[in-house]
Design a protein that fits this description.
Pfam families: GGDEF_2, HTH_30, RsbRD_N. This protein has 396 residues and is α+β, with helices and mostly antiparallel strands. It has 14 helices and 6 strands.
Length: 396
């Protein structure tokens, strides 16, 4: 082994690079892997030559450093352990072949093969456990440090602080020189340990639906809330209805797509404003609340002062300001009627009702209100928007 360690190292390196895709494409990692293989092979050879107790062996420094680098680069621990298993397999095949070539007595060859397998097994078991411990400690330390830096950079960005775009991109792993859309996601049930994973998967589905051009940025805020940004490249995207993204227990608020660092911040602020609307509506909130909807923008302003909004609703709607299913149906029909410039036919088509039914509902709504739709029309429209998006909170 000592005489051919360079050749065996090269053979092992080729096998590992070809088999474990996580190790490809990073020259520094490959170089360190080669040094780790060399160090492990030389240590195994010394254990065999001098009959050293495997329990007293420590992992070679290059193997320890290799584990640290994998942890820092986010390569999974399975790739680390798989490299040791494949290394043991390749080294064992090499040893058995050499033994068979050099030892004519099959009993001696068999005993030598058994000894090699037993020693390397104990060595790999001990050393892989050591490097895995190093990996886990380094991974926790690295993530804690990275998350601290990420949080500081993100806070500065959202606060409007002057920050170099390249520095921010390196810290967050996200490109700013493009169009983004900010997203807020939250779970509506009791928080569980799996909520954040569900929210991250949901963000991925949302990014796909929006035509995202890369991996979205996901930043957890607590166990049940997260902020996200979907990269859209340089495309101009309009946020439409995302009804196919409905997920029981998850709510989403979406900002308006905008470019650059300023767009990154503004779209996030839009999403927070849209979330404020959904939070007021509580269980009456829609699965997706998009700030690009003019009514949502109006509702966000109305949600900022609920007492004033309730007074507006009572004044503008009169008897129509009632928290009941019947009053809600009348309000919704009237809202659509006003948006179609008082067209019964257009309203009937949009709400999927007969024209006569629409006329009955509009007449009944006017009767409950106590005055025509043209009187204080702006107040009327704002009150209807408040009821639609803020739910019972606007009429209680």
């Amino acid at each position: 082994m000592i005489e051919t360690v360079a050749d065996l190292t090269g053979e092992l390196l080729g096998v590992l690079i070809e088999t474990i895709t996580d190790l490809q494409g990073d020259p520094k990692i490959v170089e360190l892997l080669e040094a780790s293989i060399d160090g492990n092979l030389k240590t195994i050879a010394e254990v065999i030559r001098y009959d050293m107790p495997v329990a007293e062996i420590t992992a070679p420094p290059t193997a320890v450093e290799y584990a640290r680098r994998l942890a820092q680069r986010g390569v999974s621990s399975s790739a680390l352990l798989r490299a040791y298993r494949l290394g043991q397999e390749t080294a064992t095949a090499w040893a058995l072949e050499r033994i068979s070539e050099e030892e004519a007595d099959p009993r001696v060859a068999y005993a030598a093969g058994q000894a090699f397998v037993a020693i390397t097994f104990r060595y790999i078991d001990a050393v892989s456990e050591q490097v895995l411990t190093v990996y886990e400690v380094e991974r926790e330390r690295w993530l804690a440090n990275r998350n601290t830096v990420r949080a500081e950079v993100l806070a500065d960005l959202l606060a409007g602080e002057s920050i170099d775009a390249t520095t921010a991109e390196n810290a967050l792993g996200y490109r700013f020189r493009q169009t983004h859309v900010g997203v807020v996601l939250w779970s509506t049930g009791e928080p569980t340990t799996g909520d954040l994973a569900d929210l991250e998967r949901h963000l991925g589905r949302l990014a796909k639906a929006l035509g995202g051009t890369g991996q979205p940025l996901f930043v957890a805020q607590d166990r049940a809330t997260a902020w996200g940004w979907v990269p859209l490249g340089n495309a101009k995207v309009r946020i439409g209805a995302l009804t196919d993204l409905e997920d029981v227990g998850i709510r989403v608020a979406i900002g308006v797509p905008a470019p650059g660092v300023e767009g990154f911040r503004n779209s996030h602020l839009d999403a927070l404003a849209a979330q404020s609307v959904a939070l007021v509506a509580q269980d009456r909130a829609q699965a997706v609340t998009a700030y690009s909807d003019p009514e949502v923008r109006a509702a966000a302003l109305l949600s900022a002062d609920l007492d004033s909004t309730r007074r507006l609703v009572r004044s503008a709607l009169g008897g129509l300001a009632e928290d009941s299913d019947g009053a809600e149906r009348l309000r919704e029909t009237l809202r659509v009627f006003l948006s179609t410039r008082n067209s019964f036919a257009a309203t009937a088509e949009l709400v999927h009702l007969h024209k006569n039914t629409v006329k009955y509902r509009v007449d009944r709504a006017v009767e409950l209100r106590g005055r025509s739709v043209d009187e204080d029309r702006l107040d009327l429209e704002l009150a209807l928007i408040a009821c639609r998006w803020l739910g019972p909170a606007a009429v209680s």
